[in-house]
Write a structure and sequence with these properties.
The complex is a heterodimer. Chain A is mostly helical. Chain A is 78% helix and 0% strand. Chain B is mainly alpha-helical. Chain B is built from 13 helices and two strands; from the N terminus they run H-H-H-E-E-H-H-H-H-H-H-H-H-H-H. In chain B, helix 3 crosses helix 13 and helix 8 packs antiparallel against helix 11. Chain B is elongated and about 100 Å long. The chains are: A mainly alpha, B mainly alpha. At the A-B interface, helix 1, helix 5, helix 6, helix 7 and helix 9 of A face helix 6, helix 7, helix 11 and helix 13 of B.
Chain lengths: 311, 357
């Protein structure tokens, strides 16, 4: 187990370094230097370069860059909000995005599980077909189509929820974005739960449990669902990543002041510094989530960590 | 596995000096003795697959929808006299109006407008005196025909998706096959590279790529290429690991086939099923990614359009003129749904043991 965890952690750290290297190279490739002023003499420029460490070898510059990024010192924004530290911009927006993403994952996982369970338990009935149809639509139709439809129907026509995000009533305005983001998660989990449940229920230990006289809820929840849940955890990680992508558009539609809309703004206004910092944040989050899921999976299912140790 | 072959090669060549002649081998004339089951005739693999595929209603529905949308993407833009970029500013934001149907009270060019006096039904065609003008899906804010633009956009989206999926297939498949076939150190190194590539979020790759290149069809295809090959290579590798221990590979190797021949001529035709399924699954992803990029303003530059950019345009006025967004959204949703349905059907048809959802 220790070896397995160590391996995952090393891979994660290495990946983060690769990403930082790519970002660093990109920054070097960007045209222009911060000291483009023609009035500066060569001496003054040299002094400025020395002050900011730009006269150092590239390796040392990279080391410094890594340290700065890890400490959360991302530099300042050039265009979106001039000379504001990016860390400050992100600190305000990240919690909003995480909250909505969290609601979406929770909602999607819960509803998806219920749908998948119903479909598996009532196999080949009208309920099963209905759940299949819902999940196929949920997987196929992009989240922003749901977002637009929900915002039109519930926001514009019926005035049930605000069409645009309002910080004063954060919870109420999170409903529509969370629901539209959760559709994909819900559909995927429902499909997966159904397949896993069917597999588990056909297994021999379920027959044993049944023949021991266990029935009803205990049989389904304690014996079947617990085993079916294991693989479901693995699909959650990629789903969370899809949420990140989806959130960009959904945040734009509902004009949510989150990191997604910040990234869109930054790309559109060529604010490289912000784009690169956000890329780093997204990557770090993603890698962290993958790491946690991998380790969790190793803890839950000994077969995985043993198989992977061999490889 | 390969070392053994090399070591054994020299002594055999030295001892074996006998040159075979034609009469060494005679066909055993046993056609009459063989018992061939005539009740259940042997079916070719693909015949069975297509039988199972066409038995599934949803897969057939998806197939028909894809064909329909593809045909419309080809002929749709030339079905009326408008062009996808031609603007008639006097005829902007007109609601859908279709000849024939307008007499039934639908698609007659009227739309509900929220004004200070409450909801009013307005018919801009009548108000502007455009009695002989028909915009089947309506016109947009610049007076462009949405019918033409929708099908033109569908064409662009389909081209991007299919090209990206095919390139992904070639790259991912080769990577996975090579990694799986050689195994050992090669596999280890290639899988570590893949793991790192897979740990960089797709969003970040796409964003960074767009910082470097100008938005456009090629950039989107490159972005899709860089992000989608991982899934494909996983499948190819898994299939290769399953097949490479089988007898036909051994037979081929015994006959002196090289690695390249075994990988692409012997194993590849046997795993083409799962690969095609994966391509079908990656097309909707590509369509979605393209639409998403267009929506955040990084897609196809104007006056070109794709489904994503149309949705993005329509979004700006979707509360006042909802019809502007309905057509592209429906086409895109149906396209993605159909590809998913076909992919699902194909997966089940190829592997009847696996009954997914």
């Amino acid at each position: 187990m220790k070896k397995y965890v160590a391996k995952r952690v090393i891979t994660a750290v290495f990946t983060l370094l690769v990403i930082l290297l790519v970002l660093f190279i990109l920054m070097q490739l960007m045209p222009g230097s911060p000291f483009n002023d023609e009035k500066l003499t060569a001496d003054q420029k040299a002094a400025l370069y020395a002050k900011y460490g730009l006269d150092q070898p590239v390796v040392i510059q990279f080391g410094r860059y890594v340290l700065n990024m890890l400490r959360g010192d991302f530099g300042v924004s050039y265009k979106i909000s001039k000379n504001t530290p990016i860390a400050q911009l992100i600190a305000v927006r990240l919690p909003v995005s995480i909250a909505i993403g969290g609601y979406a994952v929770a909602l999607g996982a819960l509803v998806g599980l219920i749908l998948g369970l119903i479909a598996a338990l009532r196999r080949d009935t009208i309920l099963d077909t209905l759940c299949t149809v819902i999940s196929v639509i949920g997987v196929s139709v992009p989240s922003y189509v749901f977002a637009l439809a929900l915002s039109f129907q519930f926001g514009y026509k019926w005035h049930l929820f605000p069409m645009l995000y309002n910080t004063a009533e954060a919870l109420n305005s999170s409903v529509l974005p969370s629901v539209s983001l959760s559709m994909f998660t819900m559909a995927s989990i429902a499909r997966f739960t159904r397949t896993e449940m069917l597999e588990v229920m056909g297994s021999e230990y379920m027959l044993l449990a049944e023949s021991k006289g266990i029935s009803g809820g205990a049989l389904i929840f304690r014996h079947a669902l617990r085993n079916a849940l294991i693989p479901i955890i693995t699909v959650l990680a990629p789903l969370i990543v899809d949420l990140m992508t989806g959130s960009l558009v959904v945040e734009k539609i509902f004009s949510i002041p989150g990191v997604g809309s910040l990234l869109v703004n930054a790309i559109q206004s060529n604010d490289y510094n912000v784009v690169i910092s956000l890329s780093f944040i997204y990557s770090a989050l993603y890698i962290a989530i993958m790491l946690v899921v991998d380790i969790l999976y190793g803890i839950i299912d000994p077969r995985i960590r043993l198989a992977k140790d061999d490889a | 596995m390969f070392k053994k072959k090399k070591a054994a090669a020299t002594p055999i060549a030295a001892v074996n000096t006998y040159v075979p002649v034609d009469t060494d081998f005679v066909l055993k004339d046993n056609v009459d003795d063989l018992e061939i089951d005539t009740n259940f005739k042997a079916q070719s693999f693909w015949k069975e697959v297509s039988y199972r595929f066409f038995r599934k209603g949803s897969a057939v529905f998806g197939m028909i929808m894809i064909l329909l949308i593809t045909v419309m993407a080809i002929i749709g833009p030339s079905m009326n006299n408008y062009t996808y970029s031609g603007q008639i500013l006097a005829e902007k934001s007109l609601a859908p109006r279709v000849p024939g149907l307008e007499n039934l009270g639908i698609f007659d060019g009227s739309e509900k407008m929220n004004t200070v006096n409450g909801v009013q039904v307005v018919n801009n065609y009548k108000d502007k005196g455009l009695d002989d003008t028909y915009y089947w899906f309506g016109s947009d804010n610049f007076g462009r025909d949405i019918w033409t633009r929708t099908w033109h956009g569908a064409r662009v989206s389909l081209i991007i998706a299919v090209v990206a999926a095919v390139i992904d297939m070639i790259i991912g498949m080769s990577y996975g096959l090579i990694s799986g076939y050689f195994g050992g150190k090669t596999d280890m190194v290639m899988q570590r590279i893949l793991e790192i590539a897979n740990s960089i979020p797709r969003l970040v790759i796409v964003t960074l790529l767009l910082l470097v290149f100008k938005p456009g069809m090629l950039t989107i295809i490159i972005a899709l290429m860089l992000t989608e090959w991982v899934g494909m290579s996983r499948i190819a590798r898994a299939e290769m690991l399953k097949l490479k221990e089988q007898e036909f590979v051994l037979a081929s190797r015994t006959l002196g086939a090289g690695s390249f021949h075994i990988i692409f001529r012997e194993v590849l035709p046997n795993i083409i099923g799962p690969i095609i399924t994966q391509v079908m699954f990656s097309i909707p992803t590509a369509i979605f990614t393209e639409a998403f990029l267009s929506f955040v303003g990084l897609g196809i530059p104007v006056p070109q359009c794709s489904l994503g950019s149309l949705i993005s345009d329509g979004f700006n006025s979707f509360t006042t003129h909802p019809y502007q967004i309905v057509a592209p959204i429906l086409v895109m949703a149906f396209l993605m749904l159909s590809f998913n349905l076909v992919a699902d059907g194909l997966r089940e048809a190829l592997d009847p043991k696996m009954k997914g959802m």
